[in-house]
């Protein structure tokens, strides 16, 4: 019998880990989200930072709601990913405030209504928190399968100070993910109990 291809392996891992995170209870989810905020505070992540990109929780992802409230409370600008209207497969980052007009995208995820003056270029963000489905012990990231973050984050270069940090539940960690050439490994991942720094 033929070995499964990398694409097949990644799809089956995606399914397993999506089910795993969706099975977390409401209490586990809200506890995890609060611990995430405390982790960020303990790590002093937001000192001297102005603009932070997060995501709005979908499909059992680690909730960012308490984190967003915290960022607003310390006057840090919050940005959310918006599907690019004409560059297929790319994301824009738009300012998100309590007054933002929100619209559902093709996947049913709310995003700020597209207004050009609310866009922040990727390079001007201080921190980008990315969602993920699974991660391994080298910082490789498996996402929802659209390649959106991989494409968009290509614009960040080594000399650029944007901090890329993956957010995940502890149960999203696995030993070694099958990787693809376009995958952008994450230098850091934060879970409710751990902070990973990958070389
Ligand atoms: N919260 C959050 N926002 C995000 C992402 C994410 O992973 N999480 N994205 C990260 O890139 C982008 C959206 N990417 C996504 C890709 C696939 C699906 C999804 O649910 N796919 C369905 C099939 C949907 C369909 O084909 O109509 C599925 O696989 O079941 C969701 C978001 C931008 N915003
Ligand atoms: N930099 C890139 N340039 C062109 N195509 C890309 C790039 N990155 C990913 N893709 C395409 O996107 C598809 C999905 O990629 P992948 O499985 O790595 O997505 P993902 O990391 O799980 O999703 P996401 O980043 O949206 O969370 C692949 O089939 C690949 O062809």
Automatic annotation (TrEMBL):
One of its GO terms (biological process) is folic acid-containing compound biosynthetic process. GO terms for molecular function: 5-formyltetrahydrofolate cyclo-ligase activity; ATP binding; metal ion binding. Its cofactor is Mg(2+). Substrate binds at residues 56, 61. It catalyses: (6S)-5-formyl-5,6,7,8-tetrahydrofolate + ATP = (6R)-5,10-methenyltetrahydrofolate + ADP + phosphate. ATP binds at residues 10-14, 141-149. Its EC number is 6.3.3.2. Keywords: ATP-binding, Magnesium, Metal-binding, Nucleotide-binding. Belongs to the 5-formyltetrahydrofolate cyclo-ligase family. This is 5-formyltetrahydrofolate cyclo-ligase. It comes from Agaribacter marinus.
């Amino acid at each position: 019998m033929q070995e499964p291809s990398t694409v097949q392996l990644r799809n089956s891992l995606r399914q397993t880990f999506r089910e795993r995170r969706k099975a977390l209870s409401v209490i586990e989810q809200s506890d995890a989200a609060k611990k995430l905020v405390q982790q960020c505070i303990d790590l002093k992540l937001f000192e001297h930072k102005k603009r932070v990109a997060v995501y709005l929780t979908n499909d059992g992802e680690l909730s960012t709601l308490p984190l967003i409230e915290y960022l607003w409370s310390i006057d840090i600008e919050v940005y959310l990913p918006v599907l690019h209207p004409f560059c297929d497969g790319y994301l824009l980052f738009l300012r998100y405030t309590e007054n933002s007009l929100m619209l559902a995208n093709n996947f049913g995820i709310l995003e700020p209504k597209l207004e050009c003056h609310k866009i922040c270029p990727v390079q001007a963000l201080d921190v980008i928190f990315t969602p993920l489905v699974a991660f391994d012990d080298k910082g490789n990231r498996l996402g929802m399968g659209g390649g959106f973050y991989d494409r968009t984050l290509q614009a960040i270069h080594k000399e650029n100070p944007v901090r890329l940090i993956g957010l995940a539940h502890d149960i999203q960690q696995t030993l070694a993910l099958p990787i693809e050439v376009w995958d952008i490994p994450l230098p850091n991942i934060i879970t409710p109990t751990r902070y990973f720094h990958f070389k």
